[in-house]
Design a protein that fits this description.
Blueprint: E1 5-9, E2 16-20, H1 24-40, H2 69-75, E3 81-83, E4 85-89, E5 96-97, E6 101-106, E7 109-115, E8 121-127, H3 133-149, E9 152-156, E10 160-163, H4 167-175, H5 184-189, E11 213-214, E12 220-225, E13 233-238, E14 244-249, E15 263-265, E16 275-280, E17 283-290, E18 293-300, E19 306-311, E20 315-318, E21 324-329, E22 332-337, E23 345-347, E24 374-379, E25 386-391, E26 396-403, E27 411-420, E28 429-435, E29 439-444, E30 449-454, E31 460-462, E32 477-482, E33 489-493, E34 496-500, E35 506-508, E36 516-519, E37 523-527, E38 533-538
Parallel strand pairs: 1-4
Antiparallel strand pairs: 2-9, 3-6, 4-5, 6-7, 7-8, 9-10, 11-38, 12-13, 13-14, 14-15, 16-17, 17-18, 18-19, 20-21, 21-22, 22-23, 24-25, 25-26, 26-27, 28-29, 29-30, 30-31, 32-33, 33-34, 34-35, 36-37, 37-38
Helix pairs in contact: 3-4
Length: about 550
C-alpha cells in the first residue's frame, strides 16, 4: 500500500533548498539578513510579521550543475519511493498537479525536483515533516548521496546551512526533523513539547494517602504490553536518571487491598533516553542511540546481560515466549534464536520491506511494508502460534504464524495475512493491543484517531472525539490502554482521560486517572499526576453498588 501522490502547501515551497556549493557565502549573507529582518519586523502582538522578506535568486542556479533526472534517480536509495504526482495548493484548495515535477519520499518527507525539456534538474528542494528513525536513516543516506553526486549544500531558510559532504552535519540536521515514535514528535505536533532545560529541583510532595508504592523520584510509563492473551499485562516505569522498574498488572492488581510491588531493574550502563520496545518473560528489548545510529538490544532483566545487539534493522519484536527475536529487514523477517550462543539467524520471506513480495512460495506473502512503525506479537492462550501485527503508514498488516523447527522455514504462516486500513489516516499506525482471533487496537495519524478492528471481519470501530473537539487533529488521542475482560479502552486525549466503553461512547474520566497502566473499564491502576505514587481507583466511584 503506497501513497500515489505528494501534496504540499504553497507556503512550504523551497523552504529547504539544495543549491550549488558555490552559493555558500550567498546563503550565509541571506541567513544573517533574515535573522535581522525577523527581529525588526515582528508584529507588535507577537503573531506574524509586518512585512514579507523576498529572497533574491541564488547566484548559481541548480541547472548549472547539469544533473540529469537519470543521474538523480541512480543516486537515490531504494528506501525513498518515487512519486510522479506532485500537487500544491492551500488548506482550502488542493490545487493542480505540477508539470515536470516528481519527488522521492520517505514517510511524510520528500526530496522534490523539477526539470526542463532536456531533463536537467532545475529545482531541487526538501519537503520536511515527521521523520521516524526509519525515515531518518533513509534521508541521511539520500542527502549524503546528493553531496557525492554534485557539489551541493542544503540551506534551511529557518536557520541551517549544511555541506552535503559532511555526514555528521547531515545526521544532526535530519535527527532534528522528528523524535522517535511515540515520544517527542507527538508532543511537538500537539504543541506541548517541553523545554529541554531542567527545572530547578523542588521538594517532593507528601505521600498520598492512597499510595500503593512511593517512588524515590517521579516516574513515567515507558512500556505497557502483553505477550499472551488472558495473561497479565506488564509495564516498565522509568525515571529521567535512567532508573527503571518492572510491574505485573494482573486482575488482582486492580483489587482493593491487593499488594502491588514494582521490581527495580538493573541493566547496567546509561539507560537515560533509551526507548523500551518489548518485554517477554525475562527478556527486554531496547532501542538506543549509537553514534547517530539506532541499536536494538535484548537484555536479560535478571542479570543485565546483553544477549543480542544489532544495528540497521527497520523494526524488531520478541516472540511471546522470549526465546526468539524477529528482525524486520529488506528481504523479510529474520529470526534470531536467543537460546543459542551467537544467536544464529534464519531468514524468512514474510513481510519484505520496500519490495513486492509476490511469488509462489507460501512463506512469502504479497504484502510488503513501506515503513514499519510499530510491531507486536501476542500468543493465544491455548496455542503454539502467535498473532503478529505490524503498524505501517496508513495500514496494519496482521498474520498468524508459528516458529518452525530445524527442518522447517523459520516462520510458518498458519492463517493468511491481511491488511487492515479502514478509516486510518495515512500516517504511522501504532499497535496498542491484540486479542488473538478477535480484535486489534491501533492508534494512528500521530494521535488523530483510535480504531478497533474485528479480526474476523476486518471491520473497524473508531473512537468518538471528545465533546470539546469538533474535528480530530494531531495529538487528539495521546495514549491508550486496553481493558482486561472488557472491550472498554482507556484513552488520554488532549482534553484529559476518557473511557471508550463497550457501547461505543466516549465518557470523561476523572483527571486523577491521567496515567493509567491497567484497567477493566471500571477500576484502574496507574500513576499519580505528579508521577511519585502508584495508585488505584475507580473511574466513577459514585456509581458503585453499596
Amino acid at each position: 500500500m503506497l501513497r500515489k501522490e505528494l501534496w504540499f502547501h504553497e507556503d512550504d515551497y523551497a523552504r529547504v533548498q539544495f543549491l550549488p556549493f558555490s552559493c555558500w557565502n550567498f546563503c550565509c549573507d541571506q541567513l544573517d539578513k533574515l535573522g535581522a529582518y525577523d527581529v525588526a519586523h515582528r508584529a507588535p502582538e507577537g503573531v506574524g510579521w509586518t512585512k514579507m522578506y523576498s529572497l533574491p535568486a541564488a547566484p548559481a542556479p541548480t541547472a548549472s550543475l547539469a544533473i540529469s533526472t537519470g543521474d538523480l534517480a541512480a543516486a537515490m536509495p531504494w528506501k525513498l519511493r518515487r512519486t510522479n504526482r506532485v500537487l500544491t495548493g492551500t488548506w482550502s484548495e488542493k490545487g493542480e498537479r505540477l508539470p515536470r515535477t516528481a519527488a522521492y519520499r520517505s514517510g511524510s518527507c520528500a526530496i522534490v525536483f523539477g526539470w526542463n525539456e532536456d531533463r536537467i534538474v532545475e529545482s531541487l528542494w526538501f519537503k520536511d515533516g515527521y521523520a521516524s528513525w526509519w525515515n531518518r536513516r533513509a534521508l541521511i543516506e539520500a542527502f549524503f548521496r546528493l553531496g557525492l553526486l554534485a557539489p551541493l549544500l542544503l540551506v534551511d531558510w529557518r536557520g541551517a546551512l549544511i555541506d552535503l559532504r559532511d555526514r555528521k552535519a547531515i545526521r544532526a540536521y535530519v535527527r532534528s526533523l522528528g523524535g522517535r515514535r511515540g515520544s517527542r514528535d507527538d508532543d511537538a505536533k500537539s504543541g506541548t513539547i517541553e523545554n529541554e532545560t531542567p527545572a530547578p529541583a523542588e521538594a517532593p510532595p507528601p505521600p498520598r494517602p492512597d499510595s500503593l508504592h512511593r517512588f524515590e523520584c517521579p516516574v513515567r510509563p515507558a512500556l505497557v504490553t502483553r505477550k499472551i492473551a488472558d495473561a497479565p499485562m506488564r509495564a516498565i516505569l522509568t525515571a529521567t536518571d535512567g532508573r527503571s522498574w518492572e510491574i505485573d498488572l494482573d486482575d488482582d492488581s486492580l483489587s482493593e487491598n491487593s499488594p502491588v510491588v514494582p521490581r527495580p531493574m538493573n541493566l547496567g550502563g546509561d539507560n537515560a533516553g533509551i526507548d523500551w520496545l518489548d518485554l517477554a518473560n525475562s527478556k527486554v528489548m531496547t532501542l538506543r542511540d549509537d553514534s547517530n545510529r539506532e541499536r536494538f538490544e535484548v537484555c536479560d532483566i535478571r542479570d543485565g546481560k546483553i544477549l543480542y545487539s544489532v544495528l540497521d534493522v527497520a523494526a524488531a519484536v520478541l516472540s511471546p515466549n522470549g526465546q526468539h527475536l524477529l528482525l524486520f529487514e529488506d528481504d523479510g523477517i529474520a529470526v534470531a534464536d536467543l537460546r543459542k550462543p551467537a544467536c544464529p539467524i534464519r531468514q524468512s520471506g514474510l513481510f519484505p520491506i520496500g519490495q513486492p513480495g509476490v511469488d509462489d512460495d507460501p512463506s512469502r506473502l504479497d504484502i510488503s511494508l513501506d515503513n514499519p512503525n510499530s510491531v507486536m506479537a501476542v500468543a493465544a492462550a491455548n496455542g503454539d502460534g502467535f498473532t503478529l501485527a505490524v503498524g505501517d503508514y496508513g495500514f496494519a498488516a496482521v498474520a498468524v504464524v508459528r516458529l518452525g523447527g530445524a527442518e522447517e522455514p523459520p516462520l510458518i504462516v498458519t492463517e493468511a495475512a491481511r491488511v487492515l486500513s479502514e478509516g486510518l489516516v495515512y500516517d504511522p499506525v501504532d499497535i496498542v493491543d491484540i486479542i488473538p482471533g478477535e480484535a486489534l487496537l491501533v492508534r494512528h495519524g500521530y494521535g488523530t484517531g483510535i480504531a478497533r478492528f474485528d479480526l474476523r471481519t476486518g471491520v473497524a470501530a473508531h473512537c468518538p472525539l471528545p465533546d470539546e473537539r469538533a474535528e480530530s487533529c494531531y495529538g487528539t488521542f495521546r495514549s491508550a490502554v486496553a481493558s482486561s475482560g472488557s472491550p472498554a479502552v482507556w484513552v488520554q486525549t488532549d482534553f484529559g482521560p476518557h473511557i471508550w466503553d463497550e457501547t461505543g461512547s466516549l465518557k470523561r474520566a476523572p483527571d486523577e486517572a491521567c496515567s493509567v497502566l491497567a484497567t477493566d473499564g471500571d477500576r484502574y491502576l496507574g500513576l499519580s499526576p505528579d508521577g511519585w505514587d502508584l495508585v488505584r481507583g475507580r473511574f466513577w466511584p459514585e456509581l458503585d453498588a453499596s
